[in-house]
Amino acid sequence: MSKVSGILGTVADVLSGDVAGLAQGVVEDAQRDYTSRVRCKECVARDRREDRILISGLVSFLTAFLLMPFFGLFLPFRGLAIYFIGYVLSFGLFLYLLNKFYSALDQHLSPILNKLPKRVKNIVAISGATMAAGLFIMLLFSSEGSETIEHEIVDTWYSSIESIEFEPNGEVNHSGEDVVGWRLQDGDLMLQFADDDEYEYYHKFLISEPYLFIAPYSDSMSVISDDCVVLSLDEDAQNESYWDEANIKAPEWCNIE
Questions:
Q1: Distances (CA, A) of 147 to 28, 73, 74, 115, 140
Q2: Which residues is 42 bridged to in the sheet?
Q3: How does DSSP classify residue 121?
Q4: Distance CA 216, CA 219 (A)
Q5: What is the mean pLDDT of the chain?
Q6: Contact 71, 82 (CB under 8 A)
Q7: Per-residue pLDDT tens digits for 40-59
Q8: Angstrom distance (rounded) from CA 231 to CA 237
Q9: Helix axis angle, 19-32 relative to 118-153, nearest 10°?
């Protein structure tokens, strides 16, 4: 049976566990290095251009993750939107740097890269692309969950003492004018207060419609259950009679007795 050549052959060998096929491909690639031919200058230039794009894309997959916390400090976006912005900026920056300095790097890297058989390069490229795609898919699913929760909390919530409106842009309309900002971070609700707006305070929260449970964390990051509050989407919750008849199943970390 004839073997499939090129990158498709590498994929087939990796998936099938054909170690012998991989070894044979390495030997064949090494033998082809001694044939008396050379690629045209235009072809080499095209390969270099494709290399720069591929390297920029792969590196940007990881760099975008590192940039997400930084962009989250001042951008009104969340999850996948922040990642996309980080990826585009990273890709543009790396592509610019590679275009500017690739010739100098190529002088040092070419002797090393030329010694690597093409089959080995294909394996490295496939592995890197697979890892990057896996990270991207994980982020996609996690960001969808986070954005769903954000969509649920964006509304006006009521109690007999106060009302609080969480706006999509991170601002808050609070009846007591104490809370001025909000955002979600790693499953916690971060609240910013008017009398100390240089800091954000961690709060544990849970949405169990029509109720919203919120409790602050202590300095040791344990939930202060006795300071837990519960609000409702129902405007009637501004009346004490609403809570007298409400059937509330509070989480274990929320003491509303």
A1: 51, 17, 17, 48, 10
A2: none
A3: H
A4: 10
A5: 76
A6: yes
A7: 778 777 777 777 787 777 78
A8: 8
A9: 120
Q: For tokens 């509304």, name the residue.
A: 155
Structure tokens at 113: 């890269």
Structure tokens at 34: 């001694």
Whether the per-residue pLDDT at 229 is higher than 90: the answer is: yes
When computed from its CA atoms, the radius of gyration of the chain, rounded to whole angstroms, is 28
Exposed/middle/buried for residue 149 (C-beta within 10 Å: 0-12, 13-18, 19+): middle
C-beta neighbour count of 16 within 10 angstroms:
9
Residue where the block lists tokens 């045209």 = 40
Residue 93 in tokens = 């920056």
- Cβ-contact 64, 83 below 8 angstroms: yes
**Residue ranges with strand state E in 124-162:** 156-158
Nearest-angstrom CA–CA distance, 169 and 217: 24
Give the other-Cβ count within 10 Å of 85's Cβ.
16
At 55, list the tokens. 């390297």
Which of 96-110, 136-150, 181-195, 243-257 bottoms out in mean pLDDT, i.e. has the lowest?
136-150
pLDDT at 96: 86
pTM for the model: 0.48
Residue ranges of the domains in the chain? 6-152, 156-245
In the numeric block, the tokens 């003491």 are attached to 255
How many CB atoms sit inside 10 A of residue 13's CB? Answer: 22
**Helices then strands, each counted (H, E), the chain:** 6, 8
